[in-house]
Design goal:
alpha+beta, Immunoglobulin-like, 2 domains, 6-stranded mixed sheet, 5-stranded antiparallel sheet, 11 helices, elongated
Length: 397
């Protein structure tokens, strides 16, 4: 046991001397896993995801392991070793998931808050004075940090490992993270068990409530757009859109409009997504599409809207969302009374690190956040009841 302790102590000193080493390893493994998932080489990503979850299992069994070591080897695990192991798991986990969320975040939406928070937490994990002297003493903040990191890891790993839909992965991730956070809080607080249990339950339920209400602001880690277009025609044979439209007149809606999306998903994952058509922030239609993972260029599907309001002029947006209301991407166009039309070729996005057309970044971010906040409020209050879809198309590959 003394030899094992010396090994752990040596590793702790090595990590202290090179604090960015573990973070770098986690980031490289995350980038490698992302690109292997993108190229349908899922085995390595599954292995790394399994190792990440294994580290969390050991971390959650910390007290059991300490008692086991004490019983079998007659000595206690040093506290610095335990703290080092916890920090290592945080670093590896955060830098593993960041490439997934960075690529899949719609940066013109509230999702930038979630991903920005992950990046800030990753920075904290590699700065020892901040991690140990500022974060660790604030136990309520530390447990939020701990649970939030686990939540992000589960969101990424469960669809890759178990091929469960994004909506179920979100529910399971939130449930597991909140349950384990409650157990950790109830165990750590120093006052009476009923008071600490009540306080832990209050904090955890509050965090779970925030997680439920802010689902649209959480990117789906394993789903991203590879091609998008709003167009007036679709080539059924090639399953490809016509020219991409940014602006059109109301008189050009006789044959309707198509919202074309190619969505990348891990092999074996079957997912239901929705095209939510909105006019000036108000929901008009919500059309369901079923997609299947396994195609590198993305599963091609489109919705065809034929009926428009009597006065369709205004700013339109089409939110591509999961069943859990997580936004995969946003398409925008404008309908005017003019007789001119602006067209572009359909946009291909595999080499970009965004999930929406680049021109979307030109609108003020304050306006974007206001619009996202109003949409989130409408979803929570139930004021935006979508009409039945006029028509939907679910082409097979």
């Amino acid at each position: 046991m003394a030899r094992l302790t010396r090994i752990f102590s040596h590793l702790a000193k090595l990590a202290a001397r090179y604090p960015g080493l573990l973070a770098l390893l986690g980031f490289v493994s995350g980038v490698a896993s992302f690109f292997l998932v993108e190229r349908e080489q899922d085995k390595f990503a599954q292995l790394v995801s399994l190792l990440m979850l294994g580290g969390w299992v050991l971390l959650m069994l910390e007290n059991l392991l300490k008692r086991g070591v004490s019983h079998w080897f007659g000595t206690e695990l040093p506290d610095p070793v335990v703290r080092f192991a916890t920090q290592m798991v945080h670093q590896e986990s955060l830098f593993f998931v960041i490439p997934f969320f960075f690529i899949t975040t719609a940066w013109n939406s509230g999702q930038m808050v979630f991903t920005g928070l992950l990046i800030a937490m990753a920075v904290v994990s590699v700065i020892d004075p901040v991690y140990y002297k500022w974060l660790a003493p604030k136990r309520w903040l530390y447990f939020f940090y701990h649970g939030f990191t686990l939540f992000a890891v589960l969101l990424t790993a469960l669809p890759i490992l178990l091929h469960i839909p994004t909506a179920k992965a979100y529910q399971w991730s939130l449930l597991i993270a909140t349950l384990l956070s409650f157990l950790n809080m109830a165990r750590d607080f120093s006052f009476g068990w009923w008071r600490r249990s009540a306080l832990a339950l209050t904090l955890v339920l509050g965090a779970a409530g925030v997680g439920i209400l802010t689902r649209p602001w959480v990117p789906p880690a394993t789903l991203w757009l590879t091609r998008v277009a709003v167009t007036t025609e679709i080539d059924d044979r090639e399953k490809a859109p016509g020219k991409r439209i940014k602006t059109l007149s109301a008189s050009q809606l006789d044959n309707g409009l198509y919202a074309y999306t190619a969505i990348h998903a891990p092999r074996g994952l079957n997912e239901r997504i929705y095209h939510v058509w909105r006019l000036n922030g108000k929901t008009i239609d919500k059309i369901a599409l079923d997609i299947q993972g396994g195609r590198q260029a993305g599963y091609r599907a489109w919705s065809h809207k034929l009926n428009f309001p009597p006065y369709p002029q205004g700013n339109w947006r089409i939110d591509v969302v999961t069943e859990a209301q997580q936004v995969i991407g946003v398409l925008r166009f404008r309908i005017t009374e003019a007789q001119t039309i602006a067209e572009q070729q359909p946009e291909t996005l595999p080499e970009k690190i965004i999930t929406a057309p680049d021109e979307l970044f030109r609108e003020p971010i304050v306006n974007t956040l206001k619009e996202e906040g109003q949409t989130l409020l409408d979803t929570v209050t139930g004021e935006a009841d979508p009409e039945q879809p006029i028509k939907e198309a679910e082409p097979k590959q």
